[in-house]
Amino acid sequence: MIQLQNIAKSYTSRGEVIKLFEQLNWQIETGAWIALMGASGAGKSSLLSMIAGIIRPDIWDIQLWDTNITHLSRDEMTRFRWAHIAFIFQAFELIPNLTVEENIDLVLDISQAPRRYDTEDILERVWLSGKWKRYPIELSGWEQQRVAIARAFVAQVPYLFADEPTGNLDEKNASKIMELIRTLHDETGNTIIMITHDAWIASHADITYRLTGGELIKE
Ligand SMILES: Nc1ncnc2c1ncn2[C@@H]1O[C@H](COP(=O)(O)OP(=O)(O)O)[C@@H](O)[C@H]1O
Ligand SMILES: [Mg+2]
How far is it, in rounded angstroms, from Cα 170 to Cα 174? Predict the structure, then answer.
C-alpha cells in the first residue's frame, strides 16, 4: 500500500510562490496499476518524485507499505528507493557506455534486490533476444524503450513508477508497450503508478486518477 497524508508543497521561482499541494491525500492498494493524468504543470512529476523520496514536500507523511519514508535520512532514502522502486522514464535513461546486458545487471547490483528474471529471459520477453551486447546507441528508440522495460522488471522490487513511458512512441508501439507492462504486471504483482497525458494509454491501467488544482480525482 502507498499512503500519502496531508502533503503540502510549494515552489518559489523568481520570488513567486507556486502552491502545488496544500493537503493532498492518496491511498493506493498493493498490486494496483494506477494511471495518473493531469494537464502539463499540474504537478504529476513532482508528486511521483515525492513518493520516491527524491523531492521533499514542505509538510508530509508518506508510507510505502511498512516504511514511513518521512523519517528516512537522504542515504537511507537512496538505499530504500533502489531496493523498492523501479523507474521507466520517457527518455529511457539507459547508460550509454554500458551494453544492454550491463544496463540490466547494473540495476540488480545497485538495488541488491533479488533477481526476478534471467537477463536472457527478460530480453526474450521484450523481443530483444540476441541484442545483449549492443550499446544503446546501436539500438532504435523503440528498442531502447524495451530495454528500459526489461530493466524495470528484472529485479524483485514492489513498485514501478513510470513517467510518460510511451511518450515518444507511435500508437502501434505504445500499444505493444502497454501489453508488455500488463503481462509483466500480472506476473509480478507489482504496484504501478504511470503518468500519462493520454486517456487511451491510461485506459490500460486498473484505476485512473486526475490531478487538477492540487487535488486527486478518481475517474
Ligand atoms: N524545482 C522546481 N522549482 C520551481 N518550480 C518547479 C520545480 N519543479 C517543478 N516546478 C513547477 O511546478 C509545477 C508542476 O511541475 P511538474 O510536477 O513537472 O508538473 P507535470 O509533471 O504535471 O507537468 C510547474 O509549474 C513547474 O514549473
Ligand atoms: Mg511531468
Answer: 6
